[in-house]
Design brief:
Elements lengths: L6 H20 L1 H4 L6 E5 L41 H8 L16 H4 L2 E3 L9 H6 L5 H19 L1 H10 L1 E5 L2 H8 L6 H4 L2 H21 L4 E5 L8 H4 L8 H24 L4 E5 L2 H9 L8 E5 L26 E3 L7 H14 L6
Parallel strand pairs: 1-2, 1-3, 3-4, 4-5, 6-7
The structure holds 2-acetamido-2-deoxy-beta-D-glucopyranose (NAG).
């Protein structure tokens, strides 16, 4: 069909097209990545070094920790290298690691694309953080409030709000509430609660945390479930190398309750994209058949004897520490190697985090 438009009309149409194109190019959603930042709360599974700034014995900012981290730096991560959250950040096209909020080497410019508030030894239950005087979740959320104020001062209010709204929030916590607190009998919890009651108590706390973060602007939130805590080398070493089935049962019950709660909240909170990141079965599969994933052992850690060393007992001078951590699922008696973290992170990215893109 031939154009019947007058020269004036076609000029107007062309101008409109140019304006539309400019709008498209300049629209913030097009300029910004769809995930603006990775923001992390939790325990040693995701602490990037906050405990270095805290008076606690729960720390790992010395060799052999970090020996496979870029620059061979012992950052305070409980690992030979990077954590799952570092891999998520990289997969979102952000920095290949998430800096700790209390690390003096980083400032608000760095934190604008990712920040970690997690603290090794912490739990959902404030009594858990009390066991080793680490940063309780409530304090981690206070730091997040402070972070939002600093971000607004740095970027301006509108841009800071957009970063907060388009960030992905990764929460990994709960194991210590059982291992360090309930089953360790170091606090009053085991007298106050049955395991089922304590699980309910923890899931209520997790619910409050999610509601609080939602109120502060978080929308895309993944809460990682617990892995088979009864199969940590530290736990097995006291059971003739058998997994402690009551710990695993507690983890599964907690996961089931957490999954239900997250699903309900996702329906209740408008605009919330909450997800339960289910790691239990996948990780149990690695433990059952480590060779399938290229691991030589999943029973002991790389550090020292691999049976009890964690934190200060994992020493840089211990000649028994393995040479090739990639062959081990566990780095110390509690925490995963970088390679195991990478495999778990890939799985959770594929199944959960990818939905935030
Ligand atoms: C995740 O997805 C990628 C790309 O499809 C695939 O190569 C990788 O094997 C997956 N990893 C896991 C652990 O599922």
């Amino acid at each position: 069909m031939l154009s019947t438009a007058s020269p004036g009309q076609s000029r107007a149409r062309r101008n409109l097209l140019v304006i539309l194109l400019l709008l498209l190019l300049l629209s913030p959603a097009e300029v910004r990545a769809r995930v603006t930042a990775l923001i992390v709360f939790g325990d040693s599974t995701v602490d990037a070094g906050n405990n270095n700034a805290v008076q606690t014995v729960v720390r790992s900012n010395f060799a052999p920790y970090g020996r496979d981290f870029p620059g061979h730096r012992a950052t305070g991560r409980f690992c030979n290298g990077r954590l799952a959250t570092d891999f998520y950040s990289e997969a979102f096209g952000l920095r290949p690691f998430v800096p700790a909020y209390l690390d003096p080497d980083y400032g608000i410019r760095d934190f604008a694309s990712g920040v970690c508030f997690a603290s090794a030894g912490s739990g959902l239950d404030v009594a858990t953080a009390g066991v080793f005087s680490v940063i309780p979740l409530s304090k981690q959320v206070d730091y997040f409030r402070e972070y939002k104020r600093r971000l607004a001062a740095h970027l301006g209010g509108a841009e800071a709000a957009a970063v907060v709204a388009d960030a992905v929030y990764a929460i990994s916590v709960g194991t210590n509430d059982f291992i360090e607190n309930y089953f360790a009998f170091t606090t009053a919890r085991y007298r106050e609660f049955s395991v089922a009651e304590y699980t309910g108590y923890l899931v209520d706390l997790a619910r409050s945390l999610l509601v609080e973060l939602y109120g502060l602007g978080a929308r895309k939130v993944a809460f990682t479930g617990l892995a088979a805590a009864g199969c940590l080398p530290l736990v097995r070493a006291r059971r003739m190398m058998l997994c402690a089935e009551e710990y695993n049962a507690a983890a599964r019950a907690f996961n089931a309750a957490l999954r239900g709660m997250v699903g309900e909240l996702a329906d209740d909170l408008p605009g919330a994209r909450l997800r339960f990141a289910d790691v239990y079965d996948f990780f149990a599969g690695i433990l059952a058949d480590p060779a399938r994933y290229g691991f030589a052992t999943a029973e002991v850690g790389c550090c020292g004897t691999g049976l009890y060393e964690v934190g200060y007992t994992c020493s840089g001078w211990d000649a028994r520490t393995c040479m090739d951590a990639d062959r081990y699922v566990f780095w110390d008696a509690v925490h995963l190697t970088e390679r195991a973290n990478r495999i778990v992170a890939e799985y959770l990215f594929n199944t959960t985090f990818v939905h935030f893109l």
